[in-house]
Amino acid sequence: xxxxxxxxxxxxxxxxxxxxxLGQLAEKANTGAKHLGRVERxxxxxxxxxxxxxxxxxxxxxxxxxxxxxxxxxxxxVKQQLQQLLHNRDAKQLQKAHRILKVMLEx
Length: 107
Hints:
Elements: H1 3-17, H2 22-28, H3 33-40, H4 48-58, H5 68-72, H6 75-86, H7 91-105
Helix pairs in contact: 2-3
């Protein structure tokens, strides 16, 4: 996952924690909902001004959007990463991955 995608995921996580809709946050941060959606999906990189506006709108420090290591160690996130890694693999590749994980994880 790219830094832009991680940033967007942290914005989305904080927005949802505050029970804000995409349009509500976009309005508070003086940006368009479509643009904010693209930022949350990691398709667009926000300007410095937008980062500050989002932080103010959610009453958080801008630094919370850059806590990539915390996100990378989140169990749900790691499972999602594993699913993405295994997606579209053929049977032989999946069997190989299974054998490797089994050796690593079983006592």
